[in-house]
From TrEMBL:
<dbReference type="Pfam" id="PF02954">
    <property type="entry name" value="HTH_8"/>
</dbReference>
<dbReference type="InterPro" id="IPR025944">
    <property type="entry name" value="Sigma_54_int_dom_CS"/>
</dbReference>
<dbReference type="InterPro" id="IPR027417">
    <property type="entry name" value="P-loop_NTPase"/>
</dbReference>
<feature type="modified residue" description="4-aspartylphosphate">
    <location>
        <position position="69"/>
    </location>
</feature>
<keyword id="KW-0067">ATP-binding</keyword>
<dbReference type="InterPro" id="IPR009057">
    <property type="entry name" value="Homeodomain-like_sf"/>
</dbReference>
<dbReference type="Pfam" id="PF25601">
    <property type="entry name" value="AAA_lid_14"/>
</dbReference>
<dbReference type="GO" id="GO:0005524">
    <property type="term" value="F:ATP binding"/>
</dbReference>
<dbReference type="InterPro" id="IPR001789">
    <property type="entry name" value="Sig_transdc_resp-reg_receiver"/>
</dbReference>
<keyword id="KW-0804">Transcription</keyword>
<dbReference type="Pfam" id="PF00072">
    <property type="entry name" value="Response_reg"/>
</dbReference>
<keyword id="KW-0597">Phosphoprotein</keyword>
<protein>
    <submittedName>
        <fullName>Two component, sigma54 specific, transcriptional regulator, Fis family</fullName>
    </submittedName>
</protein>
<dbReference type="GO" id="GO:0000160">
    <property type="term" value="P:phosphorelay signal transduction system"/>
</dbReference>
<feature type="domain" description="Sigma-54 factor interaction">
    <location>
        <begin position="157"/>
        <end position="392"/>
    </location>
</feature>
<dbReference type="InterPro" id="IPR002078">
    <property type="entry name" value="Sigma_54_int"/>
</dbReference>
<dbReference type="InterPro" id="IPR011006">
    <property type="entry name" value="CheY-like_superfamily"/>
</dbReference>
Length: 471
């Protein structure tokens, strides 16, 4: 039994530590030549001459790659192959002339490759490198699938109101159409901030065929404009300063799964043209490349803005809007969902109690009244935040209206409601008054006003558009 290790200086010279390799081979001269060549390339190697030797050495040496001879003094390499595969090792079998049937059986049992003796050492090195790359890709794919599966656990749209029943029916119907089309139609999900557009998109993905494929979410509002093109479309090495290597974009990363473009209304006009070309031709070209790659992914977009109005005013491409709006889902605001509000509140309270080991929640009569009478301008997201906070602060699981601490939406005195359009509701009038007061205090600095109100700049812009307030 021979165990050969690199010393620390050798590893530093080579620049990286590569895979551990176990050579199970009874021809000593050939095995020593393999060890020398692999050590020269930076690998740590162990050599044994029998099946029993392999079983013994793995107690102290964990191989990433196993070079396994088929004919050994104490048996056939196939007797050990499944054990290595079960431990996650990549196995390359080595066969003599006339043992091709063994090689075929080995591949069926999980071997990555086979080489026929006599073996060229450079060919062996190349086979090892290919096996390593294949293993890395497989592990990356497994991780991606596990992450997607974990993110998808418990994905559901809660609610029994007619509005939500209609949404669920739409998702089911669209999923059937998308799954049956070789060129899946685009889907546009609209609705106010916090209504659950991202949940609807993921549920649509899970309802489609190939739902084990990637679900890639892109937040168009949070990606810096200067990086957005590279993130979406990818780039080749040297395409721009800092592009030290080729990189696929998120469109490619979606493969034949789903690409979810959240807040599509924030996409710059220049990139809207490129995205339209991808949707029309179903190909993508990385920055700095002349090669086009096929795009099999499903495209789902979401927005809290009125894309039709934006397209009429030139802020969004009309042709892209029509292309995205081939199929649409409209998420209802929480204020239009009736008893769903209390159902969701109880769900979020119970969820928080389980997570933190608290007493089972109970809403007082006053708390129920407060939940049902409040307009929830932030929709489901605001409800979840308020109920979670209240649950953490309440005593013995009893939630009161004081624990909920819902904002008082009465109008401020500095902006009289009489100046507002008569058709606006009292609540909308109060909201507009608050926005105007804060904007006036900040000299119409939208970012500063958003910070004062504790909301995002995007939400502030949406509220301003809603109430026709110009900055």
């Amino acid at each position: 039994m021979q165990l050969a290790h690199l010393n620390t200086n050798e590893k530093l010279i080579l620049g990286k530590q590569q895979s551990n390799i176990l050579i199970v081979e009874d021809e000593a001269l050939f095995a020593r030549a393999v060890v020398r060549r692999l050590q020269k390339s930076g690998y740590e190697c162990a050599h044994v001459e029998s099946l029993q030797g392999a079983r013994d050495i793995v107690r102290q040496f964990t191989p990433d790659v196993v070079l396994l001879d088929m004919r050994l003094p104490d048996g056939n390499g196939l007797d050990l192959l499944s054990e290595f595969v079960a431990k996650g090792a990549v196995v390359i079998v080595m066969t003599a002339h006339g043992e091709i049937s063994d090689a075929v059986n080995a591949m069926k049992q999980g071997a990555m490759d086979y080489l026929k003796k006599p073996i060229d050492l450079e060919e062996l090195l190349l086979s090892i490198q290919k096996a390593e790359n294949a293993a890395k890709q497989s592990k990356s794919l497994d991780y991606s699938r596990q992450r997607n599966a974990h993110a998808s656990e418990g994905v559901e749209l809660l609610g029994d109101s007619p509005a939500m029943q209609n949404v669920k029916m739409q998702i089911t119907r669209i999923a059937q159409l998308v799954s049956n089309d070789s060129v899946p139609p685009t889907v546009l999900i609209g609705g106010e901030t916090g209504t659950g557009k991202d949940v609807a998109a993921r549920l649509l993905h899970l309802s489609c065929a190939n739902n084990e494929k990637p679900f890639v979410q892109v937040d168009c509002a949070s990606l810096p404009a200067e990086l957005m093109e590279s993130e979406l479309f990818g780039h080749e090495k040297g395409a721009f300063t800092g592009a030290v290597g080729a990189r696929p974009g998120l469109i490619e990363a979606a493969e034949d799964g789903t690409l979810f473009l959240d807040e599509i209304g924030e996409l710059p006009l220049a990139l809207q043209a490129k995205l339209l070309n991808v949707l029309e031709r179903r190909v993508v070209r990385r920055i700095g490349s002349t090669k086009e790659r096929a795009v099999p992914a499903r495209f789902v977009a979401a927005t809290n803005r009125n894309l039709h109005e934006m397209s009429q005013s030139g802020r969004f491409r009309q042709d892209l809007y029509y292309r995205l709006n081939m199929m649409s889902i409209s998420m209802p605001p929480l204020r239009d969902r009736g008893q769903d509000v209390m159902l969701l509140a109880q769900h979020f309270a119970a969820q928080t109690a389980r997570r933190y080991g608290l007493n089972s929640p109970h809403f007082t009569r006053e708390a129920i009244s407060a939940v049902q009478s409040y307009r929830w301008p932030g929709n489901v997201r605001e409800l979840k935040h308020q109920v979670t906070r209240a649950m953490l602060l309440c005593h013995n699981g009893e939630l009161t209206d004081a624990d909920l601490a819902l904002p008082n939406m009465r109008p401020v005195e500095s902006v009289p409601l009489m100046s507002l359009d008569s058709h606006q509701s009292a609540l909308d009038s109060a909201e507009r008054a608050i926005l105007l007061q804060v904007l006036t205090e900040t000299k119409f600095n939208v970012s500063e006003a958003a910070r004062k109100l504790g909301i995002t700049r995007m939400t502030m812009r949406y509220r301003m558009d809603k109430h026709q307030i110009k900055a």
